[in-house]
Write a structure and sequence with these properties.
This protein has 28 helices and 23 strands. With about 700 residues, the chain is of the alpha/beta class. The protein has 4 domains: about 230 residues, Rossmann fold; about 110 residues, HprK N-terminal domain-like (Udp-n-acetylmuramoylalanyl-d-glutamate--2,6- Diaminopimelate Ligase, Chain: A, domain 1, 3-Layer(aba) Sandwich); about 140 residues, Rossmann fold, CATH 3.40.50; about 140 residues, Isocitrate/Isopropylmalate dehydrogenase-like (Rossmann fold, 3-Layer(aba) Sandwich), CATH 3.40.50.10750. The chain starts with a strand and ends in an 8-residue tail after the last helix.
Length: about 700
């Protein structure tokens, strides 16, 4: 058992960053204070920050000063080595590391990158550092362009070399292994490795290895002529546009980069048209060589197109440019959150985190941090995959969120809308996902349309809905999506990015209806504050709830809180605390609190109570010294919609808190509403919590 781990490789471009990102993400789901230390950095540009450290610090918001994350750059190490100052260097590394170790619950150490001069001594230095820091090693083997025998031999040699230097090896990761070799590599290594060594084999993934257009532009020192908004496009391969157009079109593959002289207007226009055509795959971008740029009529034509792939211009010739592109090694950087998410997904898919967790010390402090909460949400949603319908399939934000959800294998999705229009938007946005992974349904042409019409008519005929009205309503995506949930053709629905709250939930109220014993549909937000997660209700649905309705909202919110792993301590908020205040509004809250205590004596509830007394331990102890809730409230119930909606937005903006929701509660089946100002992250998170609501189990998230 250890509270440190050293990630090491024996050669360059092994994919250490995938393991570092995934490991830190795993650890942050279990403890608050994670340190990161890279004893020796490869500082390519003097004065510039090391990109991988910056990625780690920025993405996970680790509160570590950059200067504390490393001890030396490569040039410093070479100079110390030549001067025979190795012992002094080790002492400095130990001293800097110990400061981090003392301040954090767990520290991830990452070895050097094997780039540049001095590669020969790097293994020795990494082994010596790991030994002196008392850190067990998780070692990475690069399987790219190696035979199965070479991968197995490399893994066994690295293990022997570390063990001969008395360095403990926790596990071996064979990374970037060709898919056809994965099982052979796994079986051969399992036969030869000691049983206590954790083995992971990760297949080669083009989404991590392929450079983005931004990386290509930076590497070539290129000028971006068009498509700067799509520089995140990945180029999986490239071809030279030097042939006649008809023959050239036969060579276009998915995510291809076209390299051609700038005066080849035919290739340029043909490429752009192919990218727009449904009969050709998506083009990643175009590089125009030899310093030549398109003539004015071609420029004017490009400027008038709706969709423009990134077009770069370089001064070098075509041969020199293609050689430079072939030498680019893609890196995961702070600005590429898509690749960061992909790296974490790969770690979670292939690394046995339960086995790894048993080998290291982790902590479970009281309370739950935002990162723990989000990690556990996704983990819970994946544990029992559900089918969610998104009625607003034509919205760009919905499509971007759908791509993330499918790529992470969290849910099955159905999008409602015109398949041709959605497909065109998918291509325009450059979303890297097989459209066959998502069902797209046009309600008016669906095979279930007639059945849904008849069902709606039978359910609502006593409410003056005739058959013709039912036909008209069932072409509405909100009604169609809700009927999918009612009929069991989808487990849940998320809508509201385009439609109003009333439009989204009206069908649910008409025929999904409320759960037995629940008088009112309400909502909660999960407020991910800097150091904890709180539940705010109701901030989205009910303008002026009665005392009885307020009690219902509190009980439903407490149940939601417990379901999502947050122990409920309910604060019934008002403008006064305890028995000091008088007036209609505070009396209503006082009555609601009594109703909650009568109906659910097992719940911890306090009210009326002011916000500061509910969340601040000092204020809470001063105003309500004997309360189990004051100063520690996790579920905050607002007296009306005006107060709740304004408060959640104020807290969100002033503290940079992430507000997940609103999540509707009280319905028989999960239907959730989005804000029309929602972001892609909002949609992603709302689908995840909807999927969890759909799960049959009602045990709290662990």
């Amino acid at each position: 058992m250890t509270k440190t781990i050293f990630i090491a490789s024996a050669e360059p471009y092994s994919g250490k960053s995938v393991i570092a990102l995934g490991l830190i993400n795993m650890l942050l789901a279990k403890t608050k204070k994670i340190g990161f230390f890279k004893p020796i950095i490869s500082q390519q540009v003097p004065g510039a920050r090391e990109k991988h450290i910056e990625t780690i610090l920025n993405y996970f918001s680790l509160p570590i000063a950059y200067e504390d994350t490393y001890a030396f750059n490569r040039q410093d190490v070479l100079q110390h080595s030549e001067a025979g100052d190795w012992g002094e260097m080790i002492n400095t590394i130990i001293e800097k590391f110990k400061k981090l170790e003392d301040a954090y619950d767990f520290t991830v150490i990452e070895g050097s990158d094997f780039l540049g001069e001095g590669v020969a001594f790097e293994f020795e230095s990494n082994a010596a550092i790991a030994k002196n820091l008392g850190a067990p090693v998780l070692t990475i083997i690069n399987g790219e362009n190696k035979s199965t025998a070479q991968i197995v031999s490399a893994a066994l040699n690295v293990l022997r070399n570390f063990e001969s230097r008395e360095v403990q090896v926790l596990g071996i990761v064979a990374n970037r292994v060709h898919q056809d070799q994965v099982e052979d590599v796994r079986q051969l290594l399992l036969m030869q490795l000691p049983s206590e060594i954790m083995l992971t084999v990760i297949p080669w993934d083009k989404n991590l290895q392929s450079p983005t257009m931004k990386e290509i532009a930076d590497s070539l020192d290129a000028r971006v002529l068009f498509g700067s908004q799509l520089l995140s496009n990945q180029a999986d391969h490239f071809i030279t546009g030097a042939m006649m157009l008809p023959n050239f079109l036969n060579h276009i593959k998915e995510n291809v980069l076209i390299v051609t002289p700038g005066d080849r207007g035919d290739i340029l226009i043909g490429t752009l048209q192919a990218n727009l055509s449904a009969n050709y795959p998506k083009v990643a971008g175009i590089v125009l060589t030899a310093g030549t740029e398109p003539e004015e009529p071609v420029i004017r034509l490009i400027e008038g197109l709706q969709t423009i792939v990134p077009i770069l211009s370089v001064k070098k010739g075509t041969f020199e440019t293609t050689t430079a592109i072939g030498a680019i090694h893609s890196r995961i950087t702070a600005d590429n959150t898509v690749k960061i998410s992909r790296a974490i997904d790969i770690f979670e898919k292939y690394v046995d985190s339960a086995v790894l967790d048993n080998k290291i010390i982790t902590f479970r402090p009281e309370g739950i941090t935002p990162h723990m909460f989000q990690y556990q949400l996704v983990k819970s949603a994946k544990s029992q995959k559900k089918h969610i319908v998104l009625p607003e399939g034509n919205d760009d934000r919905i499509l971007k969120a759908a791509a993330r959800l499918i790529s992470q294998n969290i849910v099955d999705l159905t999008l409602l809308g015109d398949p041709v229009e959605i497909g065109a938007s998918w291509r325009r946005l450059g979303l890297d996902l097989d459209m066959n992974a998502v069902r797209i349904i046009n309600p008016a042409t669906s095979q279930h349309y007639e059945d849904y019409v008849e069902t709606l008519y039978e359910l609502r005929k006593n409410k003056n809905v005739n058959l013709e009205m039912a036909r008209d309503l069932m072409t509405d995506v909100s009604y169609f999506g809700t009927m999918m949930v009612y009929k069991g053709h989808a487990d849940g629905m998320v809508s509201g990015a385009v439609h109003t709250t009333q439009h989204t939930i009206r069908p649910a109220l008409q025929f999904i209806k409320t759960k037995p014993g629940v008088s009112i549909v309400s909502s909660v937000f999960f407020m991910c504050l800097p150091d904890r997660v709180a539940v705010f209700g109701d901030c989205a649905v009910n303008p002026n709830p009665t005392a009885s309705q307020l009690a219902d909202i509190a009980i439903s919110s407490a149940e939601s809180s417990a379901r999502f792993g947050i122990p409920p301590r309910i604060a019934m908020l008002s403008y006064s605390s305890g028995s000091s205040g008088e007036g209609e509004d505070v009396d209503r809250v006082r009555e609601a609190t009594l109703i909650v205590k009568q109906r659910r004596p097992d719940l911890k509830v306090e009210g009326p109570i002011q916000y500061d007394a509910a969340v601040d331990p000092i204020v809470g102890s001063q105003k309500l010294s004997n309360s189990e809730v004051a100063g520690r409230a996790s579920v905050l119930i607002f007296p009306d919609l005006n107060t709740g909606n304004n408060t959640y937005k104020a807290v969100q903006r002033e503290t940079n808190a992430l507000a997940i929701g609103p999540m509707l509660q009280g319905l028989n089946k999960p239907i959730n509403d989005l804000s029309r100002g929602c972001t892609v992250d909002d949609i992603f998170n709302t689908v995840v919590i909807t999927a969890i609501q759909c799960q049959e189990t009602h045990e709290p998230i662990q």
